[in-house]
Amino acid sequence: MIITTDGGFERQGLATELTNASASSLPALEDYDRVRGEAHNSSGLPPFTLTGLPGLETSQHWLFLLLSVLYNVSIAGNALILFIIREEQSLHQPMYYFLSLLSVNDLGVSFSTLPTVLAVFCFHLREISFNSCLSQMFFIHLFSFLESGILLAMSFDRYVAICNPLRYSTVLTDARVMWMGLCVFLRSFCMVFPLPFLLKRLPFCKANVLSHAYCLHPDLIRLPCGDITINNVFGLFIVSSTFGLDSALILLSYALILRSVLAIASRDERLKTWNTCVSHLCAVLIFYVPMVGVSMAARYGRRAPRFVHTLLSLVYLFVPPMLNPVIYSIKTKEIRRRLCKILLGDKVLSWRIL
Predict the structure, then answer these.
(1) What is the rounded average pLDDT of the residues 262-283?
(2) How many CB atoms lie within 10 A of CB 53?
(3) Which of 162-176, 203-217, 313-327 is least confident?
(4) φ and ψ at 215, to 5 degrees?
(5) CA torsion sign, 131 to 203 to 53 to 299?
(6) How far apart are CA 184 and CA 151, in angstroms?
């Protein structure tokens, strides 16, 4: 047997020795398996195998067409939102600054999943390196935490606009909006940053097959053969301190908003005031409802087919970036008017569709 300087076994010498081994030398083979696992772990860089839709391999080209539509709508829609907010002076307000952050974040979600989804469903390339997988996992979870924080900031904006309208311009200045966005980013970055290092310290000696066409921490954490207690505790901490805390504060803000709306005497004024929150409420629902669905399926749907879990994760990652620009384009009059002007020309301004 030939041993290389880095502690691994040369394949040719190892194959020759195994060929010459007799069928009765089972302990030797077991020792080889054990040592091979240790050598594999010592490199720290095992490759991972991505999967598409388990059990529906013959239909994956149709899924790729669907995902292509979602990608195109998401990228084009969010890019248009950013362009309109930049060009329309009337939209240079805190509410639309937060919407710009949401659009940038949705573009980040789309571009972070696009490479491996395209490779798996279009080119049937399923292997991804360890470092590439950790990088993709980092960005996917970073943008997920960012979206939760941005939705919380937008709920605070709606709270101030409805409950303290006279102080809106003094509370939400451009400088404070910038600091809020920076704080949301720093919090999300600090939460996600340790995850790759906590995973990299673990030994991976099993079949490294992932359940999706992209890398997620709950999926990766099932693969190590070492102690993952720290990873589980830290994962629970960051989920509860981001998604859990943000959702609770969003509920609190809307409870206060609802109390203020119900105090308005005029029914028309109540509806008009509440209508300013509809877009944000829809964005919150399409972000948190799929997340809860994925969590519930992972906990209670273990007997469900594997493709059900994959489809739920696809909904969680692909639907919000696609629907957010659609919702805000429909519900925001200024964005709708400018979008119609871009797509249909100036003549649309004379039509009574707005």
Answers:
(1) 89
(2) 22
(3) 203-217
(4) -100, 125
(5) negative
(6) 10
Mean pLDDT across 315-330 = 90
- Among the listed residues 154, 140, 124, the one whose alpha carbon sits nearest the alpha carbon of residue 257: 154
3-state secondary structure 196-222: HHHHHCCCCCCCCECCCCCCCHHHHCC
> Of the ranges 30-39, 129-138, 178-187, 229-238, which one carries the lowest mean pLDDT score?
30-39
| Residue of 339, 293, 344 lying closest to 316 (CA atoms) | 293
Q: pLDDT above 70 covers what percent of the chain?
A: 81
Give the contacts of 28 (CB within 8 A, at least 6 positions apart): 21
HSE toward the beta carbon, residue 165, CA cutoff 13 A: 6
d(CA 191, CA 292): 20
Rounded to 5 degrees, what are φ and ψ at 3? Answer: -110, 125
Amino acid identity of 274? W
Residues 230 and 202 sit within 8 Å (Cβ to Cβ) = no
pLDDT in tens, 90-110: 889 999 999 999 999 999 999
Q: Cβ contacts of residue 249 below 8 Å, gap of 6+? A: 152, 155
- Rounded to two decimals, the pTM is 0.83
Structure-derived torsion over alpha carbons of residues 202, 138, 149, 249, reported in degrees to the nearest 10: -20
Listed residue (218, 256, 257, 266) closest to 238, CA to CA: 218
Strands (E), the chain: 48-49, 127-128
Structure tokens at 80: 């248009």
State CA 228 to chain mean position distance: 23
